[in-house]
Amino acid sequence: MSISDLYSSGKHKRDLGHFASIVKIAKTDGTISEGEQELLNNVAKRLNIHENEYKEILEDPAKFPINPPVSYDDRIERLYRLTKMVFADKEVTESEMLLMRKIAIGLSFPTENVEKVCDEAIHLVVNGNELEEFNSAIKKVNTI
């Protein structure tokens, strides 16, 4: 196996874990809404999730661990995608927020600041901020 194969397989594993986290949030309320399904399809396509992987993750997302990227910007982007899923059905439940906070900790956001980071993330997505603005605002809330 070449170095590039090792890198790409590691990246794909991180992407599978990220997609599974998004699926967990979509399934928190027991159903996947039309908006959530559309977002899942778009994210799966962007992350090159194959159909068999997609089905396996939908069936049991807990089998796929969170493998956070090293880059802070990549972790913020993952938080952005997770937050978009939380708000995909136009409502944010308490159970979705609790799961989002757990996943944010898994993405290496500090435990003592994760509530503030997640609250700001929801605020930004609700107000239609795109990734660039989201990234800047999260960095202001979560100074490292």
Explain this structure:
Helices cover 68% and strands 0% of the residues. It has 144 residues and is an all-alpha fold. It has a single domain, classed as TerB-like. The longest helix is centred in the first third of the chain and has 24 residues, at 3-26. The termini are far apart. InterPro entries: TerB-like. This is Fructose 1,6-bisphosphatase. It comes from Tenacibaculum maritimum NCIMB 2154.
Proper CATH architecture: Orthogonal Bundle
What are the low-pLDDT stretches, counting only 5+ consecutive residues below 50? 1-7
SSE run: HHHHHHH
Query: What portion of residues belong to β-strands?
Result: under 5%
- According to DSSP, the number of beta strands is 0
The main pleated sheet reads as:
none
Class per helix and strand makeup: mainly alpha
How many structural domains in the coordinates?
1
> Roughly how much helix do the residues carry, as a percent range?
55-70%
Average pLDDT: 88
CATH topology: TerB-like
In whole angstroms, the N-to-C terminal distance is 37 Å
The number of helical segments is 7
- What is the CATH class name? Mainly Alpha
Shape: globular
Rg over alpha carbons: 15 Å
InterPro entries: TerB-like
Protein name: Fructose 1,6-bisphosphatase
Core attributes:
TerB-like, mainly alpha, 7 helices, disordered N terminus, 144 residues
